[in-house]
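Margin note from the TA: students keep mixing up input and output lines. Inputs are the sequences; the output is the structure of the whole complex. Example:
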Amino acid sequence: MVLTARINWGRIIVWWSLFLSCLMPLLWISYQAWTLNLGADPAEEITDFTGTWTLRFLWLTLAVTPLRKLFGWSWLIRYRRMLGLYTAFYALIHLLCFVTFILGWRLDLLWNEVTERPYIIVGSLAFLLLLPLVVTSTKKMQRRLGRNWTRLHQSVYLISLLALLHFIWQIRSNYLEVLIYGVILAVLLGYRLYLKLRTTHLLRMSKVHSS
Amino acid sequence: MLIKKPDSIPSSEITSESVYLQRRQFMRGVGGLMLGGMSGLAHAVPEYPIDADLPRYPGPAWLQPQIRSSVRNNDYSTSETPAPYFNAITHNNFYEFGTAKKNPAQYAQEFKTDPWKVEIAGAVNKPGHYHLEDVIKPHLLEERIYRLRCVEAWSMVIPWIGVPLAEVLKAFEPTSKAKYVAFTTLLDPEQMPGQRSYFSTIRWPYVEGLRLDEARHPLTLLAVGVYGNALPPQNGAPIRLVVPWKYGFKSIKSIVKISLEEEMPPTSWNLTAPNEYGFYANVNPKVDHPRWSQATERRLPSSLLDPNRIETTLFNGYAEEVAGLYKGMDLKKWY
Ligand code: HEM
């Protein structure tokens, strides 16, 4: 008997390992909350923690392309969607932590925050812009949208800049942490810019030669 | 030192200590009671519940008897319940020891706060470098339970022990030239990791200031203790300011210099971000920080089930006592 579709156990193990690893931060902070180990201001601790992990998942998602191209790790692309969806998942939890634990669902306060505070405005914008990406993340949508899918998903660059701004506008005195995330983002986006400039340059060169 | 949230104290432990506590409570305040006649002072400082696994800070030997005989000043104390000791000693801003609110409790435990000298300078008849002991010894220590409102929109109720700043200033005889009081925190990068950071926008040492009438207001306290003990190093030991109607950053910690000035002195947060932090920094729900609202605050302790959000009040609820200081002033302009 011939197996037409062979099960790739290696791939399944990697997928599940990554899937479960990405849940670890959430499990960890939930455990800390459950055992009352979040310190004297648990609301702020949990909101900062989930915000930080949203940013990390976004940066990880953006790291896939550069790592693929620089090291030839083409298999990474298989896990990009999962990282992107986890970014949105953590962003949602972060938002819910803020509304529940810090604002206590006082919608009047939420309205004031969302309309008046620049750092909340850019954070909310980043979150809203993530939603269309979540909705169009399926393979089916990707096929259906074709080139437009790529164009739509390039909004992730804007989202990353908004997320960084959200972080920058919370600085009170120490900017080391923000600087580190900023430098990493500069490398991730800078690499893409470099690739783009190189291809347009090569294109122009080839035109010059062929004429 | 690692300070973790303790589990609630088993009730058996409380009862086994209660006889001892009652004795202590009786002994306490006897000194104050004997002074007699002073209004609002005739109340012993209670013994606060301190979880067995949390550190206690008895303070230097010279201070201990004075703290023992301190008395509660009920006239100037709120009847609200003080925050649990755990919250007060593990959650505060003291950027000299790091910018996260848990950093001071983590990194200040080895901070050496005795012996300590305070320089008294400027427009006074008796300037000089004084041992803290000589500054504090002549005065009766009072306990004052104050609301403390942080500019970041959280607050706690804290039982301080200290002496009104007015009394301390009087001892050094300010001259008629004195219009302001300037304060300076210790500069010691070896002990204070925050002062070694290359990424801080605050210029060290931390400085603060008050107008002379604010400094002489009976609510303004120079604190040397909390919760019936000496100040923990993370809370600004051995001596700090407490100005309850202003945002917490005005209440400068670990003071090494008090100077009476003719001109308005510079203040650290104002130098760092002048559009966000003014010289006055009076608590005011109607004047927002440019980046967040001051209309409400989270009163700690709060749990994940209840943020304990309350309305912020003008001058942190001390309007009756201090509004007169700012008569005719535009509080939006002088934020
Ligand atoms: C993609 C979206 C978002 C990202 C990447 C993000 C990321 C972050 C980060 C990195 C922090 C700082 C953590 C720290 O100080 O250590 C933070 C804090 C915060 N975020 Fe977000 N955030 C996002 C969306 C939002 C949204 C939609 C809201 C609310 C509407 C929000 C509200 C807050 C608040 C209130 C804080 C400060 C909590 C505190 O310290 O009191 N964020 N966020």
